[in-house]
## 1
Amino acid sequence: MGQSSDILDEIKRGKISPVYLFHGDEVYLIENTIASMIESLVPKSASQFNLDVFSNPDVSVDEIISIAETYPILADRRLIVVKNPSFLLSKKGADLLEVFLESKEQFRSGNFTKSASLLAKALELEFDEFAEGGLDFNRAIDNFKSKYEQELSSEDIEFLDDNSKSLTSHIDIFTNSSNSSGLDRLIEWLQNRTSSTSVLIISVNTTLNTNDRIVKVVSQVGRVLSFARLRPPSNVMRDPAYKIISDKLKEYNKTISADAFAELRNKTGNDMGQMFDELEKLVTYIGDRKQIEKRDVEDVVAKTDFERIFDLTRAVGQRSLPLALANLRSIMKKSDDPIKILSMLIRQIRFLLQTKLLFEKGLLKQDMTVLNYNDFQQKFFKKLSSELIAILPDSDKLNVLKQPYPLYISIQQIKNFTVSELIKAMERLLEADIQIKSGTLTPELVVELLIVDLCSKSALSH
């Protein structure tokens, strides 16, 4: 944080470098620094004409240079922000899953050539290898599915199995210019640029080698700042992240205990972005209390998408719309595909309905709700009869009795719902699925309206 504060202080004093390069794993800190720089460098009244932000990894160096050399309109300078450009990142450094999801979106839009080029990049294949569609192609598909097994939805898998092969005929192998040539042009331009009316900010969400040419050149003509993951010291009170989190909580007139912060740090893998994502939920959860305690972090902060879905359905069951929306926003930041979120919601509501019906039929016993998870596994789950399991569908994704943790969580949550409410919720989920597929509303809005309805007692009672 110290160096980024120095840069912001320099800008306030009028000392502005022509180019900034930010790199590292702390994405939140990078984005926060960029947002502060935009606010300082470009007046809101002039931002429409003098601010260009590129988040598409395929942005070309020529386009960046062209805009940087365009004279600003009614302002002192033009600001260009380039995030995770493919010409700078190695293939391993790029977020291949995001590239894949963009490929899927382009396919839906009928832009097959664009979809093919993005899929080739996601699979880490040269365009000619992709076009052949042979052994290397098939192996790349299998490796991709294996690597992102936890993140890919059933729809993603279906896209890879059913549509990827057809895209091999749409690839344009003649546009596969190398990353290095684009990087060479950028370096040459940086070394010889004469314009002083533009500022270029480049950010990459991975750590670059200090020996990289781009790092050396930008160090000579501008500023390079590493946002490496903050190393936690043994004493929590000396952790720079603890101060950052504490300062943020002052906005809510809240504090966090050292034990609670240590638990938050452990559960988020010391990722500042994830910590900030969880703060909103924690602040909502503790209500009027002034301090976040360790038990609050244990109750609220989850590690996986499915655990976050459990938190979301628990908030829905409590009819707590603020907490449900806070959970939804947290999930959206981690998995920005609303269709995947809807799929996970359908899965959990289905599991809740199955569990509720099994209890009402007397096939599950009420006394198991007081068991902790370890006792639940040993004393109950492992003793489930094959006949009982066979009552429900065979697929693990459709049968709550086949996985211990989803069943355990569902047992804890069913007291918040009646059977009729869960049936109505499933109907509402189906309606949302149709709305997304028909394109009548944006997927994000569909999911948010869905959560509002699910938190409404009246909406589920009609």
## 2
Amino acid sequence: RRDPDCMVIADELPTDKPRFEERYGESFEPLRAETFAWLKTQELALFPFIAGVQGMGMDALVVAPANAGFFALGLALLQGIMDEKALSPDFDPKAVIFVAPPFRHTHFKGKQMVVHNRRPGRHELFSYNLYPGPSAKKGIYGVLLALGEREHWLTAHCATVQVITPYATKLCIMHEGASGGGKSEILEQVHRQRDGALLLGTNVLSGERRTLVLPHNCELRAVTDDMALCHPSLGKNDGRLALIDAEQGWFVRVNHITRYGTDPNLEKMTIHPTEPMLFLNIDAHPDGTALIWEHIEDEPGKRCPNPRVVIPRKAVPGVYKGAVSVDVRSFGVRCPPNTMEQPTYGIVGLFHLLPPALAWLWRLVAPRGHANPSIVATEGMSSEGVGSYWPFATGRMVDQANLLLDQIVATPRMKYILCPNQHVGAWETGFIPQWIAREDLARRGGAHFSQEQVTPSRCPLLGFAM
């Protein structure tokens, strides 16, 4: 799992993040030189890739010790790998990742650490850990955010899906949120019971179960899983937000897959892979088949809450290729159970409609919410920060907030909803609220409701309820 506060800034450019010198009391330059000296003694794995998308990202390079091959594999699956023999003569890496895992223990007391050093003409990223999350994935996210900050565009923290109804109509939904907010899950088909019904929820007090019969699912075409380039060149000037996937592979969390048959599509994809995949925190054995519901244990009887699999984008059946224009922007928040005896903030209904101003505020706060599976040692509702990507950004919060506001103002045709997961009141729901919202909105042709169909929520921050 990703340690909180595992990123520092080594340069003097504007930032709201902790600087290396402030935290450790000395310049980063000696450690930078020591890192290079150590790398010179190692057999290295070095390969080029594109951070982002050709023409909308930057040339990049990774320098890692060869015995950290699984890290290099993870990075290659997530960001892609270029054939060095086919490199263009004008290939010029503007971002470089240097991987030095032992320094985590020799210099940082066992804590994961990623250091960003924004030098003139080159963004250096020093990964002092082996977990792909903070560096191979989110480190590159920070590089793209820094590029977008200079060029006035965003890389959104979202999953995007094109939904095709049984009536052949289409709706594109972009689902945002902090880690654990349901981004990867919006790409999954709704989970069904043995009899084909949908389990809406189980009451945590009485054990009552409520189900729904839905004869046909909508068809899903995944577009993005976590990082979406919202580059201005993609827009059609139609009032909608246009985006394209910023990744070549997806870092899919499978903590909710606890038994065979939970998600047949994902299980088939990982049991019979068409491309190499990387499994993390999965209890697998050499020459065996990795089963995504067999999670390792943090301690006897306590399953790891953050099992992952890195799936190459091209291995996803029906994946959408190219840019899309979004119809609905959804935001997910993890909610705890809420009862009269133990009141909490778990008061969000199945889904709520938000005006653009409230949608912006939710994205400024980006609450992590209940039982977050991706972050170590957090309790209650804490904030992930602007856009829910703030932990990975290298600059100033106000600049990212203004970029997000400008994006919302520039796309007036967008509709916004808020979706809870895990609980609705006293009902344990998992991710069923966002799946029901997706199916309902697609069949409606979007988030179009008359005044008679909605009412102001009792809590103004929740916009309008059904």
## 3
Amino acid sequence: MAAKPRARKRLPRHYHLIGIGGTAMASLAGLLKAAGHKVTGSDENVYPPMSTGLDEMGISYSQGYGPENLVPRPDIVVVGNAISRGNTELEAVLNDKHHYTSAAATIKEEFIRGRHSLAVAGTHGKTTTTSLLAWALEAAGLNPSFLIGGVAENFGTSFRLTDSKYFVIEADEYDTAYFDKGPKMWHYLPDTAIVNNIEFDHADIYRDEEAYKFAFARFVNLIPENGVLIAGWESPIMRELASKSFAPVEWFTYGSEEAPPAGVHNWHARDVKFTEAGTTFRAFRSDEEWGAVDTPLAGAFNVRNVLAVIAAAESVGADRDGVREGLRTFLSVKRRMEVRGEVRGVAVIDDFAHHPTAVRETINAIRQKYAGRRIVAVFEPRSYTAQRREFQGEYVNAFESADEIILAGLFHPERYEAGTAIDPAEMVRQWKGGGKPAQHLPDADAIVKELGPRLKERDVVLVMSNGGFGGIHQKLLDALS
């Protein structure tokens, strides 16, 4: 049974969240409410499921921004990272000298300080790994609190507050607030830190790879000597940064041609088998076998995620049988290789992948899981990275394992010039030149109209986007019906 964290003697406060309708802010609102605070908020448009969730928690919020939302005067105003100067409510906060802070700083002071922080960082795989770690510790009887950037299906929620000493958190590298442009992960006081991989992303806020690398260098530098860094060996940048860690390093690897040097702790998998039901393997820490693993997760990248979770669970002394059961019964995360439905033998899968590496690894995982089936990859270039021309070559290569490719239109083409945006027509020409069927269609409706009638039994449609993509998943399923 996990020890309880040091008691907090704070009186209940009134927190007001500007931008409460965002996923992270709504989850923070729920945590604050669970801690006994009064919580109010405001946002421009609050729709289901966020509005429904806030209503169910008994949290009142205003539709629209304005000074009137600050009456009665809250004790603390939390400014969401989507809120910028010129917002009428924010201007009133500044004019009237309200006590204001960021979501990440609030999480640190209210929920992490005094607990053991298990923080999951890296360019790819954070949400799945964080959810898996929380569930593995739950199955091991440690009853962790957690905050995740997606809905963990085992829990049916993205957050939970308990009396456990352990807090599991997804450590995002995106910026904190308009007044704090450092990444959120710098606030999370990591004791056990997982960094899956580091690869340049978020070109909208990081000027180049060096700036992005610095964010993780500082995160690694926050881990205390009595903590542990669990690091992905396949990432060259991670190897560089880990060498400067004051905390001991536990490596994890799968599929690397170059193994970690002798004498370092190296988590790895042997006898790996992929099937439609999931993945099995034997987990080792260097030459010592940890045990057999059976997980419904698919793909090489998820073997790495599982190894990282095992290493983190070992670092806090979690019961191995409980951890194994958590790995076996994990239900994944919404929008991470989520099977939205199967009609007439055609599977429609939803995934959040938007970075070229995530796209490549997701397609490869689907290939491993659905061996022998035709894979149609449908991609919406929606994120800033996905629409930038400097990543175009990587995207062309990322779709190599797909049998057919459909590329949707850019999310906001007016934001780019010919020299800065990807060129869909050129990408299609390159794919076709390599003998791969490919086309560029403007939107979800056009894709469903063209693709739906020719899908056949055993086809797998993998839809990748970090947005709603015009409801394409349900439209495809409806068309198949």
